[in-house]
Amino acid sequence: MVNFDFGNNEKLYLCINNYQYPDAGRDCFKYDRNWLDIHISVQTHAGSWQINDPSLLTWELKMLIDEFRKIETETITGAKTICFTEPNLMFKLFPSSDKGINMRIYIDEESKPDKFQNDGDFFIEGWISMKDLSKISDSLQEELNKFPERESDW
């Protein structure tokens, strides 16, 4: 499980349950073979909830890991947005210092509870140290290693 804990009573836990279609063979479209069923648990000042939804593709999770790893070694000078095919999660990173970054995680669509659907943007945010960002990257990679990208004949 990947833990985004901002230390301000705002947390998001993420893990991969399985592929959305675990039995999809090579004769299925590449997208269908590589959707990941994601479990997220959110704790915020506005409430807590859990949800399961196929919201990331294997290569999108790999891209997120790569972006986090890049930030560990390079200084970002402006806001950086990381978004995906399904708009359930989006990450926005803001420069802070060489010791950490400010991270905002937007939660939307199927991952956002009904009671917040009409409230506009919903996000949690806080400061993440480079050490914790490295741990997050490692944890994401461990999750992805269990569900590698699957090839397709299509």
Quick recap:
The protein is of the alpha+beta class and 154 residues long. Helices cover 25% and strands 40% of the residues.
Q: How would you describe the overall organization of this protein?
A:
By secondary structure, the chain is an alpha+beta fold. It has one domain (2-146): Transcriptional Co-activator pc4, Chain A (Roll), CATH 2.30.31. 25% of the residues lie in helices and 40% in strands. The chain has helices at 30-34, 58-73, 130-146, and strands at 2-5, 11-19, 35-44, 47-57, 80-82, 89-97, 100-107, 123-129. The strands form 2 sheets. It has a 4-stranded antiparallel beta sheet with strand order 1-2-3-4. It is globular, with a radius of gyration of 16 Å.
SSE inventory with pairings:
Blueprint: E1 2-5, E2 11-19, H1 30-34, E3 35-44, E4 47-57, H2 58-73, E5 80-82, E6 89-97, E7 100-107, E8 123-129, H3 130-146
Antiparallel strand pairs: 1-2, 2-3, 3-4, 5-6, 6-7, 7-8
Poorly predicted segments? none
Average pLDDT confidence is 92
Strand/helix succession: EEHEEHEEEEH
Helix count equals 3
Outline the biggest β-sheet: 4 strands, antiparallel
Overall spatial form:
globular
Strand content: 35-45%
The strand count comes to 8
Q: Main attributes?
A:
154 residues, alpha+beta, Transcriptional Co-activator pc4, Chain A, four-stranded antiparallel sheet, 8 strands
